[in-house]
Records
---
Amino acid sequence: MNNHKFHMVNNSPWPILISFTLLSLTTSAVVWMHKNDSLLMMISFMLIMTLSFQWWRDIIRESTFQGIHNKKIIKLMKWGMMLFILSEIMFFISFFWTFFHMSLSPSIEIGLNWPPLGVEPMKPMNIPLLNTVILMSSGVSITMAHNFILNKMLTKTIKSMMITILLGIYFSMIQLYEYMECSFSISDSVFGSTFFLMTGFHGIHVIIGTMFLIVSTIRMKMMHFSNNHMVGFEASAWYWHFVDIIWLMLYISVYWWGM
């Protein structure tokens, strides 16, 4: 017991180990790109997943079983998640800035046209609209899950979470199909570069958010959450809403207006 409300974290080997493994992953990714040898990259990726599991296991133990995360710690963790989402928003703003800079004033290098000549844009009313409906529907289901857990309806909460996870996986599959059918590539002018950077990074965030929701659902089944102690679930829900909003902006600006 301490005479203050703050959590003084014990010494942990996971941060420094993950730092070295991330360095190994980036280095091995360069090796893969230049020498087409992916063995070291796959080993580094598996090490990151293993070390992350160990680190998150310790955090779950501290919050759920040791009771270290009191109201003050919960408030600080929520602020941390909000600041993290804010940093992600700034990350995407840089891509939107590039897109609007090039589309509103196309340079002479791309023929003063947007989209550039020779690039056949995608039709916004086909696959992009379907993906928009899928992701907006998942936003509704995660909101329902939040409402159910506040009202202590565990079974309905888990069902709503499962619907959200399935919609997230379905979105990723549809986006993969969209990439396979796309008539241009990332090397086709600044149009292809911005398109695949924006949609690709968003797709990575959808995959991360889906994993976040899967972990929250497993913890929910293990009775780790209650209607007044559910920081992990709330963080996953906030992150998923962030993914929804970014996609809506992508669809309106890139697919609909920009095409």
Note: Residues 1-68 form a domain with the Helix Hairpins fold (CATH 1.10.287.70).
---
Amino acid sequence: MGRAFFSKPWRDTENYQKDFDFVKSYKPRNQDVKHLRILLHGPVGAGKSSFYNSVESLLKGRVVGRAPTNTNTGKSFTLKYKAYTIQKDPDSFYPFIFNDTMGFEEKTNNGVHVEDVKLAMRGHVPDGYKFNPEVQFQETDPGYKEHPTLDDRVHVLVCVMAAGLVSLTSDDVWKKMREVRLAASEMGIPQLAILTKVDEAFPEVKTNIDKGYKHKCLKQKVDEFSMSLGIQPNCIFLVKNYQSETNVNADINALILSALKWMVTSGEDYLNNL
């Protein structure tokens, strides 16, 4: 097993309790925004909905599964543009929202339209809109937000990719994700990425999830992902989503929290620089 791991992590670990306290106490300083909006996008089967469920599990201290998921990854199980909030206590919610999207697929008329994701980033797409792989969302469609507020717009874009699919993803899907990334760059939206299912891609990590940032092949996957998408390696995070577990786990939580903290701080920086 030793040959699979570096002696030291290739990314510094964060201060768990300090980061957890930060996330729990976070509030946007921009008075025009009630919620920091985080948009998840990526190919079918990447684990976008599962990541939201995992964040809620982390914050609630118990495994939950509010966002529907499917282990059969042939087609996108998410068909609607859905905004998920997380209840903090009986009277309030955390001030960040996750927007889930339909997955990208290889063919033109399959999966979510790139233009629909661009419209979502600009705040034009209403919550509950059902994606149509054959027809993109139009200004004349019911629910189209002609004059979105800053609160409607996306403040952080997160690409979600399963670690084992980095080398198997088609050029067509990479092209769609790069086009979304370019549009976000033009809007000034910060971009991060997460590699999910790290334990499925590399069995050595399954029983050593705390050593994820020491694993040599995962470092190579991060570098490969960086080259394919064009996003910096230090903006790519390793995650294991809650799937088979029935109780939360400190090591799994640590990976999720590291990614979540960067999403919140990146979005806060974006809002403060407007």
Note: The domain at 2-9+33-273 is CATH 3.40.50.300 (Rossmann fold).
---
Amino acid sequence: MQPPDEDLPVIQVSLGEFVLAAEQMFTVPDQLEAFLRFVLAGRLQYHDEHARISINARQGALAPHISKYQLYRDIDSVIGITKDLPFQLHMAIFPLASFRDSLTEDNHLKCPLSSPKGVIGIPLYRIPNMALGKVDRRHITRIFFPRLYHQGQNPAIPPETMTLIYEECLRPAVISLNPVDQSRWPITYSAAMTLYRDHKGRFHFGTIDFPSHLLDQLGSKLLELFQIQDGLQDAFFVHELRGTKGASHHNLHDAEKRRAAFNAVFHLFDMSIIRPEDWVVDIGLEIQHQGCILQWLTKGHRQFFNQVQYRVISEADWNNLVFQRYFPAKGTTAVKALQHFPSASYYRQWQALMARLDEDKATMVQNNQLMQWFNKLYWVPHPESDRMWSTKTGGKEWIPLPFGECGNCPRIAVNPRFHGKDAPRLDEETS
């Protein structure tokens, strides 16, 4: 054994876990040396590797009494599946559907479809769909076409079908109800493609406002026209309002404040035609304890995460992508759809620090001081372009732990400096 201060992976245990492990070693005759090393030196040998034991007396501790902390509720997102357009505000409609606004990620909702085996639930994002329009900055309404779904095939709608949707359904529907806007709608789908593409070939998806008092008729008219087109039958609308976190904080025990928060989020919907059974509301809870911070302990992770998926990041990506997402340089413009980061205390403090420093000092703090600390981390949540924690299922480059079929679980970015060296084994930490 080397001197006692060599760098070893750390395993954090509660006081009870430490005592239990020590008792088990003490009762086994050939484990006496391991017992002494464990209780006197804080060392543990597992799988021919050595680790340092760190006792956290707070791990597994009881939560404070309910009277000593504050519990708030927040409406994070709202999703509705309907056969109408239940809005009381005007809708900005895409003549040329924005490709990037199609649903391509799992939102955990399924659509019942008939099959030779009976009725099965198909995740919504696997059903061909297109963006119809927006009623609010954080809102999107999409049209789904279940008859176009084929197992194992790309859910993207082919160009010829998009042409059919525009020329035989979308344009005729809006013009029949609001003929004054006829000149604003390109005559053909190819004309729309030309109109919304710049000279470099890039698309700029514009919208045309449609009046609120005609939206209920537009929904019915669209479904009527879809019904007579082969492959477009049984279409339905999905309305998604996301990223509202922080706008509807309220005391969950106060009925009046619950109602006010609900009304604030649903202000764009016509509640007279809303059917509650068509909607799913994602509720978030926020716990605050005066003078304390929330700690995520290893023991707690095992209760929340049953599986993770990890990827060993290249050194260039760890430095230029991962690090820069967590600690952006001074003057970096934040993505509008950014989630999780703006709510993190460290992130707000980092932005405040960057604002106080001049360019040279900010660069020195970021690259010379903070980077050295960041490079000592074994792993971090893999940051996406819009969020810190991503749980979508990855491709072949993502390795699930425990091994097996991978569901929706946190993505982990592994520091390449420690992979295969003296870092804790991921399968031990997540088992």
Note: The two ends are 27 Å apart (CA to CA).
